[in-house]
Task: inverse folding
């Protein structure tokens, strides 16, 4: 079982290295799908495993149920984004002879290698027990995604990439300071360690003042990476400028893993200090994120930016859920991570296809999708329904569970505010989606100006199977108490809070 | 400003190690303050080199005065710090800077939001804040039973925190891409200082990962700033305002 822990990083390394060479154009093309599938399979296998928690290399790799679940989420969301993001075999802008196998271009090879590196780093981040290694892995994703954000080139993509790297690195540097101080606390207590299991075991007499500073800094740092207000400003730029599958990966995987880091730090604070400090921080960040998202979604004119703000909104819901704490709210938080990741990855891919088909990301310029392009409009509407938390989708159950648990925990005012802000978000998203989807098929103005050139934005078509799969999973997962409910409860219990 | 950081150091009976730590911490603080004051970007790169050397001295001193078991590891870490922070990182930044100047970019930070006097006043305030927020850290570390560092080292912690804050000041107060990069490095040197003073550095594997991450971030930012210069024609970040709501 312990050997399984080595599979995800090794697979990412080998596939990434293979994809970077000229060896096989097919491997380069399918590298992201391959690594994601390995991650999903390993995560599922580790989830099915009962008995002692597999560990490897001291505190280096360890997969408790929470780690296994996160690994499966990273794999599933990665699979949705990379599979659906595969361009059709023939790239529209590169005509070629039908019988001649095209070698992968330099940009394609770099893209494939960076996606594999990103997925590998995420896998290490969720399966390590060492907080230092967790930090290194999360920071490594900044490095992997920096060029992915700027992949399309052009001043706007470069601006987004610069802001992303500077803000991301500075934010995560704060988390490093927090990690260093946690190490100092353990060292002063007589057992120098960064092992999460030892820090939450309560066997070290950690100094309260030091842990308070350390935990505050670590939560603040990882919250930057998770896109929580007030350190969210890199997120809409990066998500709107990156290629669609990368936006999906960043939104569904990177934010989720950064949030996972917050959950781990929170567990240490709970053991040493009690829940007060982190609850206050998370509640403020969560409500702040919801408010920022609600205000900016209402007057959003760009549909990719709108999706990015929706990610901030959902991170806000997660932060509120984590602030509530307790077994029900934490299981709901994990369900929310699954539902949001799958729905958002699908929606970003659809948004990429809409951009390719219409040549614009301006909401007002897209009309009558349902009549003209039902293959884009249907997944867009279904995905939005999932994202807005309508039943039967998973986000409905998770949001209701978080609000109810919060109410019972005596946070009624915060839950009222959460629900009100969520309703504002729903109104904004419904209005924007309706205006894109509905309307007559034939627009005189568009007909006069001719078809919009779609070059440089990828393809407007692609595999539908991953979208159908991802959205169906989101639809049914809320009803599957066994084994899903059981898995969520075990994962929440791994944090030692349930 | 140095007085704030070293008040406690000077009051302790000075062994050679304590004096060396005080010297290194003082050098770190003075170079950080000079970075705020100087506008010449090449001067800032030279200051970064001095900071790297001071950090290595700090690591060696803590290593030699600590328990023998951790000595070899800390000496290796010190060599790593010297190679990375005193040579490689300043070299990368300096090379990018010279290439940018040859391509017509400014060699000075000309669009700073604060004039030198005002920024020095802000630095004085930041030093005070650093001293206040580091108090629980210093006390906990000095009182700890398993502390690897002697008491005096813990009381230099405000220097590291102050460097982190000065790094922030450089990041938000400067408009050239290279100035922001230098601010990030000061911030990172500050974190390394705190790590050495409070815990004699992080475990070696983590230190290796952190170092390579920092190196890659700096390389990426250097490449991005070259591309921005090629596309936009300047690296003043004021010209980057296309993305907003």
Result:
């Amino acid at each position: 079982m312990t050997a399984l822990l080595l599979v995800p990083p090794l697979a990412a390394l080998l596939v990434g290295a293979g994809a970077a060479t000229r060896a096989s154009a097919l491997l380069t093309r399918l590298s992201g799908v391959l690594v994601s599938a390995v991650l999903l399979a390993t995560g599922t296998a580790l989830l099915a495993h009962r008995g002692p928690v597999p560990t490897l290399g001291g505190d280096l790799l360890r997969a408790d149920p929470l780690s296994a679940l996160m690994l499966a989420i990273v794999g599933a969301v990665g699979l949705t984004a990379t599979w659906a993001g595969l361009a059709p075999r023939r790239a529209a802008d590169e005509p070629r002879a039908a019988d001649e196998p095209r070698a992968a271009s330099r940009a394609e090879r770099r893209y494939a290698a960076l996606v594999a590196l990103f997925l590998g780093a995420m896998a290490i981040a969720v399966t390590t027990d060492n907080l230092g290694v967790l930090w290194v892995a999360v920071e490594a994703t900044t490095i992997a995604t920096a060029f992915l954000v700027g992949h399309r080139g052009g001043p706007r993509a470069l601006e987004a990439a610069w802001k992303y790297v500077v803000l991301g690195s500075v934010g995560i540097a704060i988390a490093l300071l927090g990690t260093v101080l946690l190490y100092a606390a353990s060292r002063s207590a007589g057992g120098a360690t960064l092992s999460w299991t030892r820090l939450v075991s309560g066997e070290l007499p950690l100094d309260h003042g030091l842990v308070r500073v350390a935990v505050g800094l670590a939560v603040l740092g990882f919250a930057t990476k998770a896109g929580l207000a007030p350190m969210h400003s890199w997120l809409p730029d990066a998500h709107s400028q990156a290629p669609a599958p990368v936006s999906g990966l960043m939104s569904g995987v990177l934010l989720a893993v950064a949030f996972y880091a917050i959950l781990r730090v929170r567990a240490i604070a709970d053991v040493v200090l009690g829940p007060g400090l982190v609850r206050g921080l998370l509640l403020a960040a969560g409500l702040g994120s919801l408010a920022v998202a609600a205000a900016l979604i209402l007057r959003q004119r760009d549909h990719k930016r709108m999706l990015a703000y929706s990610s901030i909104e959902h991170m806000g819901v997660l932060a509120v859920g984590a602030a509530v704490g307790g077994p029900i709210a934490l299981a709901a938080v994990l369900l929310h991570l699954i539902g949001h990741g799958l729905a958002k990855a699908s929606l970003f891919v659809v948004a990429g296809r809409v951009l390719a088909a219409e040549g614009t990301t301006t909401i007002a310029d897209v009309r009558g999708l349902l009549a003209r392009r039902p293959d884009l409009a249907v997944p867009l509407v279904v995905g939005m329904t999932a994202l807005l938390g309508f039943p039967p989708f998973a986000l409905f159950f998770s949001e209701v569970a978080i609000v109810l648990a919060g109410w019972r925990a005596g946070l009624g005012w915060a839950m009222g505010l959460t629900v009100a802000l969520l309703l504002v978000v729903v109104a904004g998203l419904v209005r924007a989606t309706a205006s894109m989807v509905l309307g007559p098929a034939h627009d005189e103005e568009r007909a006069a100006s001719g078809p919009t050139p779609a070059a440089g934005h990828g393809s407007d078509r692609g595999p539908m199977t991953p979208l159908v799969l991802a959205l169906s999973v989101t639809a049914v997962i809320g009803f599957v108490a066994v084994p899903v409910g059981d898995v969520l409860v075990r994962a929440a219990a791994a944090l030692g809070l349930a | 400003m140095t007085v704030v950081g070293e008040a406690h150091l000077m009051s302790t009976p000075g062994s050679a190690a304590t004096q060396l730590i005080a010297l290194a911490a003082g050098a770190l603080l003075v170079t950080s303050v000079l970075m705020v004051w100087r506008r010449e970007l090449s001067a800032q790169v030279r200051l970064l080199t001095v900071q790297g050397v001071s950090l290595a001295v700090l690591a060696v001193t803590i290593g030699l005065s600590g328990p023998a078991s951790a000595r070899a590891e800390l000496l290796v870490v010190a060599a790593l710090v010297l190679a990375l922070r005193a040579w490689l990182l300043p070299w990368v930044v300096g090379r990018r800077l010279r290439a940018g100047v040859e391509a017509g970019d400014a060699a000075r930070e000309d669009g700073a939001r604060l004039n030198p006097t005002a920024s020095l006043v802000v630095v004085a305030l930041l030093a005070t804040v650093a001293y206040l927020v580091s108090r629980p850290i210093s006390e906990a570390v000095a009182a700890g039973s398993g502390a690897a560092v002697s008491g005096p080292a813990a009381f230099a912690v405000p220097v590291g925190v102050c460097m982190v804050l000065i790094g922030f000041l450089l990041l938000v107060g400067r408009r050239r891409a290279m100035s922001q990069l230098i601010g990030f490095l000061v911030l990172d040197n500050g974190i390394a200082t705190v790590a050495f003073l409070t815990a004699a550095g992080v475990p070696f594997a983590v230190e290796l990962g952190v170092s390579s991450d920092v190196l890659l971030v700096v390389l990426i930012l250097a490449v991005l700033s070259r591309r921005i210069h090629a596309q936009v024609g300047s690296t003043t970040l004021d010209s980057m305002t296309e993305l907003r709501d």
User: Anything to note?
Assistant: Residues 155-188 of chain A form the longest helix (34 residues). Chain A touches chain B through 56 residues (CB under 8 Å).
